[in-house]
Amino acid sequence: MFRHDVIAIGGSLGAVDALRELGGAFPADLDAAIFVVVHIGPHGNNLLADVFGQTSSLPVETAVDGTQVSPGRIYVAPADAHLLVIDNIIRLGRGPRENMARPAIDPLFRSVGVDYGPRAIGVVLTGSLNDGAAGLADLKRCGGLTVVQNPADAAADEMPLGALRATDVDYRAPLAELGSLLAKLSRESAKLASHIPDDIRLEVDIALGRTASSEDLARIADPCAISCPACGGVLSQLKRSPPLRFRCQVGHAFTADTLATDKEASVDEALRVALRIIEERIVLTAKMAEDAQKSGRLAAAKANERRMKEGRFYAETLRRAIIDDDPTDVRVAVDSDEF
What's the whole-model pTM score? Predict the structure, then answer.
């Protein structure tokens, strides 16, 4: 008889403190394997296992590729690798980043859903944006249980809220109650194995690092007129939702929320670069006007003064855009006597 004896946990902003508290709440005899993904930089020192181990009653270790999964242990994703489980063996995937992260939470949830089906429990903790939402929905499609930290209890509520919007979550609880809830669920019988959708298997393969063909991608997504911020390729919109998601041919994956945030940052950076170029042009035209005035070239001096004033107008318009003021009420009058 199967139990819910595999627990996958994902978090981002505020998750380190949350996991320290959660690890201390697990009973020492918890007979379940626990996998943890927290967003960390690509050059981390893999110290999270030591941090969590300070409070955990269960042994905690950084996941190593090829390790046989054992119950009663906590496996933490290392830097710059997706944590996956395939045939009850830990695999560290070097596939493309998802939601600008590697390790990302979605691949872990999908892999335990594929490997363990109804035995799996997915848990979304505090965090920004909505990595984990799509993976949690996929884990549920595989028959697993879904658990979300109460958004009102989270240091950052975006990830819990995103998970709640993406699927019909089975349990929602404050952090202080999650340890006892997961221990209780791990002792309960799981349903019989469910059918595992092929599209979820494909996305696990992509996270592992296997190449997906154009035909593979076409089965699960439709091309759209948006470019991938990671590689510049064409993005395709995943056919299943929520949440609204995109993948490129290389395999980079984004929820719409993550993609919008990245595009907004790109626009802001482009505006700042444009502002710097215009400000340099203002300085240059001012010097050219001064030089023309000194040499008696009055027409050239007037033309450069006009270009300088024009540049100041454009610079002010860009400044307003950058600080989120509305520049639309500024009258463009570059051909008038104002310049």
Answer: 0.80
